[in-house]
Design a protein that fits this description.
Layout (H helix, E strand, L loop, with lengths): L2 E5 L8 E5 L3 E4 L5 E5 L5 E7 L9 E9 L10 E7 L5 E4 L10 E5 L9 E5 L8 E3 L5 E4 L5 E5 L8 E5 L4 E4 L30 E2 L3
Parallel strand pairs: 1-16
Antiparallel strand pairs: 1-2, 2-3, 3-4, 5-6, 6-7, 7-8, 9-10, 10-11, 11-12, 13-14, 14-15
Length: 208
């Protein structure tokens, strides 16, 4: 499965196309290959974002599936997060010590007002809760409920909330307290295109 993201990765004012698969490739809008990252075994998930404020352009978060659990050899699966800079150079790669090979990652751009983007990682396996990671691979927020995740500005305003859900219940998390007894405005909230569909391989775009 291939994941595609579009955004001005290198800061030249034009959109680039980043494609994730067995390798990571970035193209300009004319189809010219700009760089190729081959440091992953089976990387199916990528996410664009400004995860590091000390670096220019956007960074590319990725998820490398190191060992598949269903290879017939009885091995326990394992995956690992990694981060590339705007030139496709590896900044770090997770040295994972727990089992789990089905992680899904997405960028979360508005968890807190004025903050850098975060990497939302869930379905990690091995007893690992869904987490928000920063551009240094540090856990910013842990969501103590295992399940799938969606996020959006449920209450309006400048920040988004995260919903972790399973077959029985859904739990809503926010970066600060909200008065949920407050009456809604009655005005429909504008939501991004990504909320119009559901997929295990989320791609997307970051507007110029």
């Amino acid at each position: 499965m291939t994941v595609i993201w579009v955004g001005d990765v290198n800061g030249d004012g034009e959109p680039e196309l980043v494609i994730g698969g067995s390798v990571k490739v970035m193209y300009d809008r004319h189809g010219k290959e700009l760089w190729r990252y081959e440091g992953s075994i089976e990387s199916q998930h990528i996410a664009l974002g400004r995860f590091r404020s000390d670096l220019s352009g956007l960074q590319i978060a990725g998820l490398d599936r190191l060992v598949r659990e269903d290879d017939g050899k009885g091995l326990k699966g394992k995956d690992a997060l990694f981060l590339l800079d705007s030139n496709g150079q590896e900044l770090w790669k997770e040295d994972r010590t727990t089992d789990g090979w089905l992680t899904i990652i997405e960028p979360l751009r508005s968890w807190q007002e004025g903050s850098a983007d975060y990497i939302l990682a869930y379905r990690r396996g091995g007893g690992v809760f869904p987490n928000l990671y920063d551009g240094e691979m540090k856990v910013v927020t842990e969501f103590p409920f295992i399940g799938y995740a969606v996020h959006g500005a449920l209450l309006g305003g400048a920040t988004e909330q995260v919903i972790i859900y399973n077959d029985e219940k859904a739990v809503i998390y926010a970066s600060r307290p909200y008065d949920i007894k407050e009456k809604p405005s009655g005005v429909p909230l504008t939501q991004p295109k990504r909320l119009s569909s559901s997929t295990l391989y989320p791609g997307g775009e970051i507007p110029l």
